[in-house]
Specification:
Layout (H helix, E strand, L loop, with lengths): L19 H11 L9 H14 L3 E5 L2 H14 L7 E5 L4 H9 L3 E5 L10 H11 L3 E5 L8 H11 L2 E5 L7 E2 L2 E2 L6 E5 L12 E5 L2 H11 L9 H11 L21 H11 L2 H19 L18 E5 L3 H13 L16 H7 L5 H9 E5 L6 H16 L1
Parallel strand pairs: 2-3, 2-4, 4-5, 5-8
Antiparallel strand pairs: 1-9, 6-7, 8-9, 10-11
Helix pairs in contact: 1-9, 2-9, 3-4, 3-7, 5-6, 10-14, 11-14
């Protein structure tokens, strides 16, 4: 465990990935009085992250939630989609869906897959036939990869764009391929407690050059200033803008979602140990699956996939049993919480607008799901001790 880690319980759900050594390195860099706002270090981190993931382009921003917002904005401003009809998952995180509400899209919610807790491919095809969406946004829930083989087959058949929310899924793989490399764009979060941290931070990844340009503009006010010179020149000619005015010409509706070079420097430091952190989390998750088989339900994932989670999601047989588990975990100072946000279709931001969403798997996760800690500080003996508490509750 990092020696300065926040630690409130015997076993916390999340511990800081930023160590004292990381902070000392950051402080040493800052003593040289570098530029702290977004500049060359951000570009350096973006290139390093793109290389790690194996994509052409990466655009860092101030959070994973902002990364999701940027994906919607870039699809819209690039005119990659026109109808703004999108299918969204019932389980995941609220800010995966909220840009659809905020930007006036037409979202339809999809039931969860019992194998992965991500989008159910069978239900997805039914909705695609009915709604004819131009896009879907999926979440690899807590590092469990969606059934991307089936979803890609549906994309080939029906022709929609795929956005991947990988904010809690660094290093997860579907059939050997890293999540975040399947869709038109993907998002990752670098928040506290995730696989790596830049304090606050996120990133959007793509292999599409035009989407990349639109991400750069949308991140910074919608202006030309951050575009490569050749692309900026194209817009200058198109809109008859001279060189003096060009940097402050606003082409698309944009935001200020920029990170700082401080965040990016932390990202470069953290990236060096990301693979080790991922290996620890993968091993922890496998041990949970082995020890909890038959005691609670969980997403097994697909054969051949690699689960790289930030928490292990267990599912009790009933809400009452979940209450018993939570009580016992609390007594043993083991941190826990509800499963992500449960069924997002039951939250007021959704139900007030579209009516409550109900489906068997999403509703069961809402009523019975809870988290168990999985972070890089935990060793096999710790996982065994946590699972022992679950076993004792079931034995009563």
């Amino acid at each position: 465990m990092p020696e300065n880690a926040f630690h409130s319980q015997q076993y916390d759900l999340a511990v800081d990935t930023i160590s004292n050594a990381d902070l000392e390195e950051l402080i040493g860099w800052m003593r040289a009085y570098p530029r702290l706002t977004m500049a060359d270090v951000t570009k350096e981190f973006e290139a390093a992250w793109a290389g790690w993931l194996g994509v052409k382009y990466a655009v860092m921003c101030n959070s994973g939630s902002s990364a999701n917002l940027l994906m919607y904005a870039a699809l819209e401003s690039s005119r990659t989609v026109s109808s703004k009809s999108i299918l969204v998952p019932a389980t995941g995180w609220a800010t995966t869906l909220m840009p659809a509400v905020q930007l006036g899209w037409q979202p339809t919610m999809c039931e969860s897959d019992i194998r992965t807790f991500g989008m159910d491919p069978q239900r997805l095809e039914e909705l695609v036939k009915r709604e004819r969406p131009e896009a879907i946004i999926l979440v690899h829930v807590l590092g469990v990869p969606c059934d991307m083989t089936s979803i890609l087959e549906l994309q080939k058949k029906y022709g929609f764009q795929i956005l991947e929310d990988c904010c809690a899924s660094h290093g997860a793989r579907h059939q050997g391929r890293l999540v975040g490399t399947f869709g038109a764009m993907s998002s990752f979060s670098f928040y506290y407690g995730h696989h790596m941290s830049t304090v606050e931070g996120g990133i959007v990844c793509t292999n599409d050059e035009q989407l990349y340009f639109h991400l750069l503009m949308a991140r910074s006010h919608g202006w030309l200033k951050d575009l490569p010179p050749q692309e900026a020149a194209r817009y200058m000619e198109l809109h008859k803008v001279d060189a003096f005015r060009a940097p402050f010409t606003f082409v698309i509706p944009g935001y200020n979602l920029r990170p700082t070079d401080i965040n990016a420097k932390l990202g470069l430091i953290q990236l060096r140990k990301l693979d080790d952190t991922i290996r620890r989390r993968i091993a922890n998750h496998k041990q949970y699956q082995q020890l909890l088989q038959g005691l609670v339900d969980f997403a097994p994932g697909l054969p051949g996939d690699t689960i790289s989670s930030i928490s292990f999601c267990a599912v009790a047989r009933s809400t009452a049993e979940r209450r018993a588990f939570v009580t016992a975990l609390d007594q043993h100072k083991i941190d826990t919480r509800i499963f992500t946000a449960g069924n997002l279709g039951r939250h007021p931001f959704w139900s007030d607008r579209y009516g409550a969403f109900s489906a068997p798997v999403a509703d069961r996760l809402h009523a019975c799901g809870f988290f168990l800690p999985n972070n890089q500080s935990l060793e096999p003996a710790d996982i065994t001790a946590i699972c022992k508490v679950i076993r004792e509750v079931r034995a009563v």
